[in-house]
Amino acid sequence: MDRAAKKQCVASLTDVFKTTSVVVVAHYSGLSVVQMQVLRKQMRAAGATVQVAKNRLVKIALQGTEAASISELMRGPTLIAYSDDPVAAPKAAVAFAKNCDKLVILGGAMRATALDVDAVRSLATLPSLDELRAKLVGLIQAPAARLARLTTAPAAKLARVFSAYAGKDAA
Hints:
The protein has two domains: 3-126, 2-Layer Sandwich (Alpha-Beta Plaits), CATH 3.30.70.1730; 127-171. It is of the alpha+beta class and 171 residues long. Strand 4 (104-110) and strand 5 form a beta hairpin. The chain has a five-stranded antiparallel β-sheet with strand order 2-3-1-4-5. The protein has six helices and five strands; from the N terminus they run H-E-H-E-H-E-H-E-E-H-H.
């Protein structure tokens, strides 16, 4: 990798660390190419990205960003997984690590907050932003639907009484 490519890589990584909401760092030693492809596919499906870069370039890119505290995790064969959704990357990484013991989660960062392994795992158990929005919409709609049923119930009862009375007269 020549100097220009390294500068471009550092600029790209700096942009990633400044714009994404969560970064997960993991060791990938011993993963086969097929397993790495599966990991990338699962991350992509979750809305996250996996990137392998030279540790030195990642450390340079981390300087001056909120996630600078994770530079100490960059030792050995490490990868970074990141996403805009705060739970997408941790959820996909933890799910893959359960099935493949060769992926070892080291920690991560959520904006300026450094995360240890347990924090990444607990973050993975949270519902995603879309799930939370769906629950919120359901909670907002429930009282309105209940109110609509309550207001139409007396009219429905009255209609059933008239129907029963009309049926009684016909018989």
